[in-house]
């Protein structure tokens, strides 16, 4: 897997590995404390334009199936997780989370401290965020955040 970087507008930067689509995703960073339901979260219209941080540490273990979407397409732009599991074990799984995110242009990062990131969000409130698999320069990423509308 390729290197990925997540930066939030207060200057905090996390380095990890990518999963899902390559590229860049820019949006408001939010967190979700669900133990399951990452497929539903990605396809929930209430997450439109957001980067979702999953607080549960293991994501991807039950895969994706076509019956559990909240809508026809993902609305979240990106996802950050502590530990991505590439081999789903649920009998209903039709594809991996990685495959689903690549197919739908959703950028992901794993291997970061999602507990610390969640505390940052709770303490400092709503902030813009970027996940990139193309650019790992902190100044450049913060400039992209600051120049976004």
Can you tag this structure with a few keywords?
149 residues, globular, 4 helices, 9 strands, alpha/beta, 7-stranded mixed β-barrel, single chain, Glucose Oxidase, domain 1, two-stranded parallel ribbon
Rounded to an integer in angstroms, the radius of gyration calculated over CA atoms is 14 Å
Mean pLDDT: 95
CATH superfamily label: Carbamoyl-phosphate synthase small subunit, N-terminal domain
Uncertain segments are none
- The amount of helix comes to 10-25%
Structural notes for this entry:
The chain has a single domain, classed as Glucose Oxidase, domain 1 (3-Layer(bba) Sandwich), CATH 3.50.30.20. The model has no long low-confidence stretch (mean pLDDT 95). Strand 3 (24-32), helix 1 (38-42) and strand 4 (50-54) form a beta-alpha-beta unit. It is α/β, with parallel strands linked by helices and 149 residues long. The chain has helices at 38-42, 97-103, 114-124, 138-146, and strands at 3-8, 13-20, 24-32, 50-54, 58-59, 78-81, 83-84, 107-110, 127-132.
Give a brief outline of the structure.
This protein has about 150 residues and is α/β, with parallel strands linked by helices. Helices cover about 20% and strands about 30% of the residues.
